[in-house]
Amino acid sequence: AATLEQVQALKTQLQAVNEAVQQLEHEQAVKLPRVKHSISLYANICSIKWDYDSKDIAGHVMPEGRPVKAFSIPAGSLDDTALANALWATIAQASGVDLSPARTERCG
Questions:
Q1: CA–CA separation, 85 and 71 (whole Å)
Q2: Does the structure show a pLDDT above 50 at 106?
Q3: What is the pTM for the complete model shown?
Q4: CA distances from 46 to 8, 30, 62, 77 (A)
Q5: Region label for 59, one of left (φ > 0), alpha (ψ between -120 and 50) or beta (otherwise)
């Protein structure tokens, strides 16, 4: 049988956990709308429609007036920088933009 001290210690732990849950729920309520808005802006700028059901990083690039280009990158296969570069390359290719080094050096 639990002693009175053990019960009190468990009640204290429970209260701390409940307070942590409330804090996390509050943070989520504040941050989630901001994150959704940011994602929406990026998606509109990049013409990306994400496939949220995929286990991979997948979706379609849908540039205005050009064919849709599907992409799928295995999750965890690239570090963040390589992943960003791969996505930008996919967007550029679908949009008909040349990002070759010779082309970008002339712009800089």
A1: 13
A2: no
A3: 0.52
A4: 55, 25, 8, 22
A5: left
> What is the residue type of 82?
A
Q: In what order do the strands lie in the sheet with 48-50?
A: 48-50, 57-61, 69-73
Say yes or no to pLDDT of 107 above 50: no
User: Which residue is associated with the tokens 């286990």?
Assistant: 55
- Compute the distance between CA of residue 20 and CA of residue 27 in angstroms, rounded to an integer: 11
- Over the stretch 63-102, which tens digit does the pLDDT of each residue have? 888 889 999 999 899 998 999 889 888 888 888 877 665 5
The residues that bridge with 69 in the sheet, in sequence order, are 61
Go through the chain and tell me how many residues it has.
108
Whether 56 contacts 74, CB under 8 Å: yes
Using CB atoms within 10 A of its CB, is residue 48 exposed (0-12), middle (13-18) or buried (19+)? buried
- Average pLDDT value over all residues in the chain: 85
Residue 61 DSSP SS3: strand
